[in-house]
Amino acid sequence: MASNESALGPSAAVRDAIAGAAASVARYPDPLATPLRERLGEHLGVGPDQILVGNGSDELITLLVHAYASFGGSVVVADPPYRLHALTPELQGATVRAIPLRDWTHDLDAMAGTRADLAFICNPHNPTGTVVDAARLARFTERFNGLTAVDEAYVDFTDDPATASALPLAKTGRAVVLRTFSKVHGLAGVRAGYLVGPAEVVTTLRAIRAPFSVNALAQAAALAALGDQEHWQRVREYTRDGRRRIAEIFQAAGYETVPSAANFVLVLVPDERGLVAALAAHGVSVRPGSSLGVPGSVRVSVPSPDGLARLEQAVSAIADGTASVAKASNSSRPVLIS
Ligand SMILES: *Cc1c(COP(=O)(O)O)cnc(C)c1O
How far is CA 91 from the centre of its chain? Predict the structure, then answer.
């Protein structure tokens, strides 16, 4: 429950598509993933010349920074950011300006007033799971003086992806949007993501990318995943129920949680290291908040149904243990904690 992967995995159609594509791996892949871009274009209502497919959205983040902010440029991100939105520019010699979240949410006013060549807005935000609405993003693009990139890795899990998304801004050339097949589509292991934005941005990034970064199996898998909207719907609903359950489980044990629009929940905990270790002892792996820039928290991804049952059992056992320690220390009798 530490890496925000899909609990339900990919569509069954993906396995067949990968098996089918395996017969042709002696050939180089389509460098521009044209059938996939065409399919995405129909799906999103945008021309294929406004889409670039990458080796996960990680590659697209690297290309954006390289083209628009490296060699002394600057990037504005939230503090805490999605790690790669800050690490990538740091590695490429750009200045990173990190603007603290307010109430766990992007402070878009402060970010818009910051001089930078490129802005990364993570919506929903990782690691908090909060969202900003598209109208506020539109106002941001009017004020900000650089290129706006909105990372929508988790947009499928929001209440209404159509209104949360900055896609209309990307279509009209005011922003770029990053999407991935790693989360709702369950393809984290094959590496495929895409960017939607102004054709000039796509042309610029094409000029500096490695031509064969998106392999043939990934292209086939992504195309098959897009074709199974029922699976998309099923994963979306399962995930939304699952994150509600995670919040309930932790709240029942006395923890506060940040309201999430993603496939994970940030839980505020007084003793982060203690809880991470106690959960690990029950076979539950979560992401320590201090590794994400939020000390005093843990990030818990929506797991399989079995995982959810195990989490519930673990959290209630830990809460009981804490209660019995408190009782024991009142009566000053030693006690074993399970
Ligand atoms: C998981 C995640 C991604 C996905 O990256 P890929 O390289 O496509 O696997 C992108 N952005 C954010 C904020 C994420 O959390």
Answer: 21
Residue nearest to atom 14 of ligand 1 (CA): 153
* Lookup: tokens for 294: 């939020």
For helices 34-44 and 216-226, what crossing angle results, to 10°? 20
* CA-to-CA dists, residue 146 to 93, 140, 186, angstroms: 17, 11, 33
Q: Please return the burial class of 88, using the count of CB atoms within 10 Å of its CB with bins 0-12, 13-18 and 19+.
A: buried
Nearest partner of 4 among 244, 181, 263, 268, judged by Cα: 263
> Shortest CA distance to 298 belongs to which of 255, 261, 337?
255
Alpha carbon distance 301, 1 (integer Å): 4
CA 31 to chain centre: 25
Residue entry with tokens 């699952």: 242
CA atoms in the 13 A half-sphere facing the CB of 313: 12
Q: State whether the beta carbon of 180 lies less than 6 angstroms from ligand 1.
A: yes
247 close to 257: Cβ distance less than 8 angstroms: yes
Residues of the chain by 3-state class (helix, strand, coil), percent to 5: 45, 15, 40
Q: Give the tokens for residue 31.
A: 């460098």
Q: Are strands 193-196 and 176-180 parallel, antiparallel or unpaired?
A: antiparallel
User: Which residue puts its alpha carbon closest to atom 2 of ligand 1?
Assistant: 153
Per-residue pLDDT of 223-252, as tens digits, reads 999 999 999 999 999 999 999 999 999 999
Q: Which of 107, 106, 142 is nearest to 127 (CA)?
A: 106
Cβ of 57 less than 6 Å from ligand 1 = yes
Single pTM value for the model: 0.95
Q: What are 147-172's pLDDT values in tens digits?
A: 999 999 999 999 999 889 999 999 99
Q: Which residues of 265-301 are buried (b: 16+ CB within 10 A; e: fewer)?
A: bbbbbeebeebbebbeeeebebbbbeebbbeebbbbb
Q: Which of 183, 194, 287, 301 to mutate to test the pocket of ligand 1 (most atoms within 8 A of CB)?
A: 183
Residue 264 exposure: Cα atoms within 13 Å on the Cβ side: 27
